[in-house]
Every structure is written in structure tokens, then in C-alpha cells.
Amino acid sequence: MRLKLLGALGMAVFLAACSDDTNKGATTGTGAAAQTTGVTPGSEADLVANVGDRVFFELNKNNLSSEAQATLDRQAAWLAKYPQVTVQLAGNCDDRGTEEYNIALGERRANAARDYLVAKGVAASRITTISYGKDRPTATGDDEEAWAQNRNSITSVR
């Protein structure tokens, strides 16, 4: 009887020790506005959760919308706060068009984001660019919603 009682008590203590009511890493919305807990400052997770890691483009365009500029403004401020961080900007396209066209367009998109960050004071030496064209879609599907999500430049911490 004592053995069963000790076993049950031990299990209760074990389960109590394993429970954790803290909210680690929870994010809300697009991840650009709300501060989160459990995210390492200056990390990729911090960039994604608290600043926003991507900007979007119109079909066959590489000019920055006001919304894209606002995201890049937040990225520039974040990069100023963490001067040791380097980033890579990856230009992406939807799956329409030739491979050559999309590689060139993705490059123009990444360069547009880079040029904007440099104009905001981020050292060019902290930024690399790459174009994936249509090879790395972030959304699947053959409709405008998916295509719009794939026309982007994504900022990654290196």
C-alpha cells in the first residue's frame, strides 16, 4: 500500500515539475508589431517576430510599396540596434515566367531592398543578396493569393 502511495506521490511531483505555464515564443499577427518572450534578441526569430522579415512586390515589379518601405524601416532600425548582425536578402518570384526572367527579377527585388536599407544607414558590407527566382515558393497554389505571397524579398540573419 505504501509503495503505491509513494509511487502516486512521486508521479504527481514529476508531473508538477514538468508543467510550464509560461508563454515562450508565442507570436501574434504578422509578427511585425508585438514583442514576444523567449526570443533571443538579435536572432532570426527576433527579426521575424518583432520586425517582419519580408516585403512583397506587385506582378513583374521590383519597386517598393509604402508598406514594404515601412517594413524595411523597421529592419534598418533593428539592424542599427544589433550592429554585429549580417543579413541576406533573397529575392523571389511567383512560378509564372521563364527561369531566366524570374532569376533576374528576384535579383532586382533583393537589390531594391538592399539599396533601401543602405540608404537608411545600414552598411552595405552587412548585406548579401541572392535570387531564387521561382525555385523557393513560400506558398503553394496556382492562384493570385499564392502568387502574391511568392513575390517577395526575405531577410535572413546570417
TrEMBL record:
Source lineage: Bacteria, Pseudomonadati, Pseudomonadota, Alphaproteobacteria, Acetobacterales
This one is known as: Peptidoglycan-associated lipoprotein
Pfam families reported in the protein's UniProt record: OmpA (PF00691)
Q: Does the keyword Cell division apply?
A: yes
Q: Where is this region: Disordered?
A: 134-158
Q: How does it assemble?
A: The Tol-Pal system is composed of five core proteins: the inner membrane proteins TolA, TolQ and TolR, the periplasmic protein TolB and the outer membrane protein Pal. They form a network linking the inner and outer membranes and the peptidoglycan layer.
- Domain (OmpA-like): give its ranges: 44-158
Print the keywords alphabetically: Cell cycle, Cell division, Cell outer membrane, Lipoprotein, Membrane, Palmitate, Signal
Annotated membrane topology is: Lipid-anchor
Broad class of where this protein is predominantly found? membrane
What InterPro entries does the annotation carry? Bact_OuterMem_StrucFunc, OMP_bac, OmpA-like, OmpA-like_sf, Pal, Pal_lipo_C
Gene3D superfamilies tied to this protein? OmpA-like domain
- Which species is this record about? Gluconacetobacter liquefaciens
Q: What protein family does this chain belong to?
A: Belongs to the Pal lipoprotein family.
